[in-house]
Write a structure and sequence with these properties.
Elements (H helix, E strand, L loop, with lengths): L1 E6 L3 H11 L1 E8 L2 E7 L24 E8 L5 E4 L6 E6 L1 H14 L6 H9 E6 L25 E6 L2 E6 L2 H9 L5 E2 L2 H15 L14 H7 L5 H8 L5 H4 L7 E7 L5 E8 L20 H13 L1 H6 L9 H5 L6 H15 L1
Parallel strand pairs: 2-6, 6-7, 7-8
Antiparallel strand pairs: 1-9, 1-10, 2-3, 4-5, 4-12, 8-9, 11-12
Helix pairs in contact: 7-9
């Protein structure tokens, strides 16, 4: 773990040289929104962007992924899709880094997901610390994800006419050494004081938008499974699945096999699925374990604020605000949680 400085004027050179050596993706503008996309020049980046439409999870668990090929007369894949392109994902917000940490916890249960791990091994994460909240939908301060903690290789924090670069992995050390003419070693004590000052100042630009403390959320959800709030949310939900597609911690997928015309050779793939779709919990015989949109929406919230806390000791809501921004029915996570918090406090 080491700290370095990189001057403002040297950051473009770092990215441009890096993009010549390996694939680099980062936040770029698309009309009036932002997406993660490959870049070959620093000028394409939008470092002050709000959260991208899709989180960087799309590089760790792609929307559509080939798993391998098979023969119909064999029970095993004859060849797996193990090759993964090396890349650098640049400019990730701390909330999205926390999202990757959540995926890591879920997808490394036994048996671990080899496709996710292969991608994780071949991706270098360079974070960019936000110094203000994205917009009125971001609840990262309440979820305690606005301060970088772990999960990155390098974290860049703006400080006057330079960036502080925090390197915490072997991949990061190798990268810094490759471009060592651009990085200057920082004094540990001095840089920690500098970071502390920056983070104290930035607190005023990260308001608490949820009417509950981080430590209260689990109790709120465990006590209000039967709340009338879910009826209201369910009536409005159109079951489009947008909220789960843009969520940095949703990882549900479906697997499908496709055979060639000879009915001997085939390919297996997986693609994102959503617990908000009516057929998601539909099983043989026609039973549906979550038939109503109320049940599906409630399940989604509990998969963020209750179930993963019991299983992984982590909230799976990172406060990025994407689900609220993208909801065509104007269902707000902030309003929903605050309604539950009000009911919880009135009942006590």
């Amino acid at each position: 773990m080491e700290y370095y400085y990189i001057a403002d004027q040297d950051l473009p050179a770092f990215i441009n040289r890096l993009a010549k050596d390996t694939k680099v993706v980062g936040p770029v503008k698309k009309e009036n929104l932002f997406i993660f996309s490959p870049i070959d020049d620093f000028s394409q980046l939008e470092l002050d962007s709000i959260s991208t439409i899709l989180p960087p999870k799309k590089y760790f668990t792609p929307q559509h992924q080939d798993l391998g090929i098979f023969r119909t007369d064999d029970t095993a894949l004859t060849e797996t899709a193990a090759e993964v392109e090396k890349m650098v994902v640049f400019g990730i917000h701390t909330c999205d880094i926390e999202g990757i940490e959540c995926l890591d916890a879920a997808l490394n249960e036994h048996p671990p997901d080899p496709y996710f791990n292969k991608r994780e091994e071949n991706i270098i994460i360079i974070g960019h610390e936000c110094l203000k909240a994205c917009d009125e939908f971001a609840t990262c301060r309440t979820m305690d994800t606005h301060i970088p903690k772990a999960g990155y290789d390098i974290m860049l924090t703006k400080s006057e006419e330079k960036y502080i670069a925090h390197s915490i992995s072997e991949k990061a050390s190798s990268l810094v050494q490759r471009y060592k003419d651009l990085f200057k070693q920082a004094n540990l004590e001095k840089v920690r004081e500098e970071l502390s000052s920056i983070r104290i100042k930035k607190e005023k630009d990260f308001p608490y938008l949820l009417d509950a403390h981080y430590g209260e959320l689990t109790s709120i959800f465990r006590g209000l499974y039967g709340s009338g709030v879910w009826d209201d949310v369910g009536k409005r939900c159109v079951s489009c699945g947008n909220c789960t597609n843009v969520c940095p911690t949703c990882y549900c997928f479906d697997v499908s096999d496709h055979t060639d015309l000879d009915n001997v050779h085939g390919a297996r793939s997986r693609q994102w699925d959503s617990c908000q779709l009516n057929e998601f919990a539909l099983v043989a015989g026609g039973d549906n374990f979550r038939e109503s949109s109320k049940e599906r929406q409630r399940h989604r919230y509990y998969r963020k604020f209750d179930y993963p806390v019991r299983k992984y000791n982590k909230f799976f809501c990172t406060g990025c605000g994407r689900c609220t921004r993208t909801c065509v029915a104007d269902i707000s996570l902030i309003e929903t949680v605050n309604s539950l918090a009000k009911e919880y406090k009135n009942d006590r």
